[in-house]
Amino acid sequence: MATSRKDQPLRAAASPAMHLVHRPDSTGTPLHVQVYRQLREWILAGTLRAGARLPSARTLARDLGISRNTVEAAFAQLRVEGFITRRVGSGTVVATTAAEVAPFAQRPATTPDASVPTARLSRRGAVIARLGIAEMEEDRLSSVGATDVRGFPSEVWRRMLARRARDGGAGILRSGDPFGLRPLREAVADHVRLTRGAVCDASRVVIVNSTQQAIDLATRILLDPGDAAAMEEPGYPSARAALAASGATVHHIPVDADGLRVDRLRAHRTVRLAYVTPSHQYPLGMTLSLPRRLALLQWAATGERWIIEDDYDSEFRYARHPLAALQGLDRRGRVLYVGTWNKVLFTGLRLAYLILPAPLVEPFAAARRVTDGFSSPLLQAVLADFLSGGHFAAYLRQARAHYEACRDTLVAEIAARWGTAVTVGPSDTGLHLVTHLRSQADESRLARRAKGHGLVLTPLSRHYAGEPRQRGLLISYGGSNPAAIRKAIRELAPDVTRRSS
Amino acid sequence: MATSRKDQPLRAAASPAMHLVHRPDSTGTPLHVQVYRQLREWILAGTLRAGARLPSARTLARDLGISRNTVEAAFAQLRVEGFITRRVGSGTVVATTAAEVAPFAQRPATTPDASVPTARLSRRGAVIARLGIAEMEEDRLSSVGATDVRGFPSEVWRRMLARRARDGGAGILRSGDPFGLRPLREAVADHVRLTRGAVCDASRVVIVNSTQQAIDLATRILLDPGDAAAMEEPGYPSARAALAASGATVHHIPVDADGLRVDRLRAHRTVRLAYVTPSHQYPLGMTLSLPRRLALLQWAATGERWIIEDDYDSEFRYARHPLAALQGLDRRGRVLYVGTWNKVLFTGLRLAYLILPAPLVEPFAAARRVTDGFSSPLLQAVLADFLSGGHFAAYLRQARAHYEACRDTLVAEIAARWGTAVTVGPSDTGLHLVTHLRSQADESRLARRAKGHGLVLTPLSRHYAGEPRQRGLLISYGGSNPAAIRKAIRELAPDVTRRSS
Predict the structure, then answer these.
(1) What is the CATH number of the domain that holds B473?
(2) Partner of A192 for a Cys bridge, out of A198, B46, B366, B441, CB 3.0 to 4.6 A?
(3) Which residues of chain B are under the pLDDT cut of 70?
(4) A440 to chain B, closest Cα gap in Å
């Protein structure tokens, strides 16, 4: 077929650009794909207009110095996608649909949205994005609560992982249950019954990826936008973000030495859900006293209110008698108990759990199904093996001894080096403690200075939603060791004690 | 210390129950924990009232025939939890806080919420629960889209998993990035650029757990409750559930042989987001034509609307020329492309991805951080290895051949055995096809009958939000093989062709 005048735009465009197709480009894209893409681009850009006749594959191949098969492959792709039509007699023609292309012809494909620097999000999307960006920024600045994975029996874990990956077979690859893997639910129920005094069986356990997901699901299942929720002040910033992300109005209830001021909670009569850390108040470290626990349960029982009990680190309790969970005192089915393996084992595990009042179990699994699906069956199976094989208990004994030594060193060194410039909060549980600053030392400056010293310091002020009532530092020793702690406390001493009042 | 009259309730209660503590109970709970729990239960139940004096540890131990240390341990636990006080001179006394206990005394601990058969959920929670329960029911009835994991190179996968678990070390255990693991984002970008004609680099990839999570995040970021969304009718039920769960008003837009009727979409002027399956309409199987693609992009570009392109199974395209993704035609940054590894590899993997317009990348990662966290770093690393090592491409070639043989067998057997009772929809892509029933055979009855025949049949009617326009069966062959297909089609023939018009 002879080329016609209609070919001219193609041939003109082809001459500077198409010689590139002599060799594969740097990404290894095959020649016929390059030809296809270039022709498509010209059609989309309007360089080749509807009705324009293309040269025959033979002619184009000769002009470009490539094989005819390569051009035929490109034409075939363009035809199947509707960009060109090929009819015996009239040759290869740009499809009339290309006439609709104009609106898309304004930018080259490599910068598809260069002129869209921002996107209009939904109102709630804007809230969620803002909260999440703040949280990501915080993650970048610190690694609060990260455990020292050096102590983790990774060889045992790896062996179990390999075994499940090998013979777990179809069950691990295929299925998934929004409630969680049954053997893991059993192992979790055994664990919380035995060590936390929780009242439950496996049927009330729902496996999730993280505490964050547990709170997110709870807010969506239990709160409508605008409903009121409450949490401790100061409190856990990520929980605050999750509550706010759900559209809830969040009331911040002060704490004292006995934990949450339940009397102050009562004053907010519309609150439908309270997020609390009864075993180890985050960040200040006290436990919620028995009278307060009972008052909180009574508050929830009257008026069908809900309590999220975040029991995030009570595995690391160094005193002889671990406090039982609030959940174990609940006789009215108002407590949603949240525990996580991401803290006590390792952050990258992505497995946590809820112990739920029976009527909430199915709604939570259903919400999981619709919003996300289910957690990795493989990792669930390995964790179930790890728990039921007694490896967790063994690891915990060793890890607890390690962290207790860290805690002892930290408390002793602070007393010796920082002296009267600080007072130290409760330290009998967990992987962090709070030092209240009596000196005029600058919280944020100290936190920055601590970087690279093996201790993570976070300004206490960051844990307040409102005006900070106390100045201090949250010191996380979960990723540290006694030698590093001694060194860090000594090196920070001049900054802490300087300008001490 | 002598026992007093106040001891009487305890001793009376103790006599029938406490003799049980002679031996560990069936759960292996230590004796001192049993004693602690029993005493706590009596205090919570009001059997032991505030101010009641307990016998001395020595006396109680003798009465119960257990060691004094056991009783002391139980008392210590009760004291630290605030249930009793111990003072020199006045002995061990039930704390006055127990007076607050009455509201919690009505039920034994073993049935904490027996009288709470239902819970008051939020309005959106009730919607989410209802949607999710329907989805879970559907999962139970079928396994649509499940791939045949027998073909998966699980030995290769296992080796890579073991290697990452061994030397991935702290990185795998510790960190997590809401955007996703960088090497996986790179590998995903390479994959979609090369095989799907997508326009992107790694910076626009966000890793999620599942298509479901991608849709859920998109609705929360881009829609407020009450905003209008649209999807195909018939369409993917789980996407419909995700849209509805977000509080959106969902418009169901009919499809024809060219896919979504974009003209009908335009009629709903408030729609802000459309969920579509352009490469392989779910469930009917046609592709969205080029004019429709361009019209859809134009619709989105005017009015800042969004398109979710769910490209769920185009890896399994048997025709010579795979259609490029809609995303590759988008010049205005309106398309959110969703791909999943849970279908093409295995359901239990829990890894999928979004290719996002640049301004949406950070908001999505932020939403992930607040609502869930991040995907398993270990599994992400293994998948990145699997992709960049070329194992995916090799597996896909083999899997595609297997499924093409399944498809060929299915189409041939249906033609031979079911004859004119059905017409078969497009079958050049994916792991399912639709047969439209011309006979009067009962959809649901056939679906039930097919169980145990190695083929999953789902009534087409289930994919309609409104009144079904067509009767038919969605036949999923992803978990099947040619022999099973031949047998199933033959055995179902009498039911399909019976009462044929």
Answers:
(1) 3.90.1150.10
(2) A198
(3) 1-28, 96-117, 142-150, 168-172, 174-175, 320-322, 499-501
(4) 34
CA-to-CA separations, A495 to A439, A458, B156, B495, in angstroms, rounded:
10, 15, 54, 84
CB contact burial B170-202 (16+ within 10 A = b; e otherwise)? bebbbebbbbbbebbbbbbbbbbbebbbbbbeb
Q: What pLDDT shows up at residue A54?
A: 85
Domain check: are B232 and B315 in the same one? yes
Query: Are B197 and B255 members of one domain?
Result: yes
Percent of chain A with pLDDT over 70: 85
Closest partner CB to B161 (pick from A165, A223, A372)? A165
Q: Please give the pLDDT value at position A480.
A: 86
Of B389, B421, B454, the domain-final residue: B389
Considering A166-170, A185-189, B160-164, B194-198, the range whose residues carry the highest mean pLDDT is A185-189
Beta-carbon contacts of residue A409 (< 8 Å; ≥ 6 apart) = A482, A485, A486
CATH of the domain at A53: 1.10.10.10
Q: In angstroms, rounded to a whole number, what is the distance separating the alpha carbons of residues A431 and A322?
A: 15
In a domain, B363, yes or no: yes
CA distance A262 to B48: 25
In a domain, A119, yes or no: no
Instruction: Tell me, yes or no, whether A226 and A326 share the same domain.
Output: yes
Q: Which residue of B has its CA nearest to A45?
A: B331
Region A354-369 average pLDDT:
96
Phi then psi for residue A492, to 5 deg, are -85, -15
Query: Are A480 and A146 spatial neighbours (Cβ–Cβ below 8 Å)?
Result: no
pLDDT for A175 equals: 66
At B27 the pLDDT is 59
Is B235 part of a structural domain of the chain? yes
Query: pTM for this one?
Result: 0.87
End-to-end CA distance of chain A: 95
Q: How many CB atoms lie within 10 A of CB B398?
A: 12
Q: ω before A357 within 30° of 0 (cis)?
A: no
Domain count, chain B: 3
Q: Among partner residues B103, B158, B372, which is closest to A165 by beta-carbon distance?
A: B158
Same domain assignment for residues A26 and A81: yes
**Chain B residues inside the 8 Å CB shell of A369:** 132, 135-136, 139, 212
Structural domain range at position A493: 398-497
Residue A19 within a domain: yes
Smallest CA–CA distance from A245 into chain B, residue: B370
A210 and A70, same domain (yes or no) = no
Q: Is B83 left (phi over 0), alpha (psi -120 to 50) or beta?
A: alpha
Inspect the interface and report whether the beta carbons of B376 and A379 lie closer than 8 Å.
yes
Cβ-contact B262, B296 below 8 angstroms: yes
Residue B273 shares a structural domain with residue B403: no
pLDDT at A6 over 60: no
Q: Which of A389, A418, A437 is the last residue of a domain?
A: A389
DSSP B383-445: HHHHHHTTHHHHHHHHHHHHHHHHHHHHHHHIIIIIGGGEEE---SBSSEEEEEE-S---HHH
- Summary count for chain A: helices (H), strands (E): 18, 15
pLDDT at residue number A115? 46
Same domain assignment for residues A17 and A50: yes
Q: How far apart are CA A490 and CA B5, in angstroms?
A: 59
* CATH at B162: 3.40.640.10
B331 contacts in chain A (CB < 8 Å): 44, 104-107, 109, 112
Same domain for A175 and A319, yes or no, is yes
Greatest mean pLDDT among A124-138, A268-282, B443-457: A268-282
The ipTM estimated for the assembled molecules is 0.86
CB contact under 8 A, B289 and A82: yes
Contact B296, B307 (CB under 8 A): yes
